[in-house]
Amino acid sequence: MDNNITCACCEKHQNAVENAMESMPQEKQIDALSAFFKMMGDPTRIKMMYIMSQGELCVQDIASALGMTKSAISHQLSGLKDSRIVKSRREGKNVFYSIDDDHVQAVLSIAMTHIQHKHTEK
Predict the structure, then answer these.
(1) What CATH number does residue 51 fall under?
(2) Residue 5 falls inside a structural domain
(3) What angle do CA 81, 82, 84 make, to 5 degrees?
(4) At the N or C end, where does the chain have fewer CB atoms within 10 A?
(5) Does 36 score more than 70 pLDDT?
(6) pTM for this one?
């Protein structure tokens, strides 16, 4: 496999460049996507996502499952909620957290499929 990432040709492929730039999302969307992946890019938060993919749980449940303090879990949930990756539902004095929607679950699932596929190739 060639690790050289330079192009051997000298001409600019104008049509390809124009097509690529036309499909580029707006800067605001790029920033939001980057922030989404930053939130998803933490091992603790990924574990939390997997736990919540089985259904809604309270802070104590998540803390117990991961062997962490409620305070640490609450801190992580706050960021995930602000990023609209998880949502909460109040029932009396209890607050239950779950993955916000199917899109978030799909991103997690697709990423894991990619990782599993790439690791079985080696």
Answers:
(1) 1.10.10.10
(2) no
(3) 60
(4) N
(5) yes
(6) 0.78
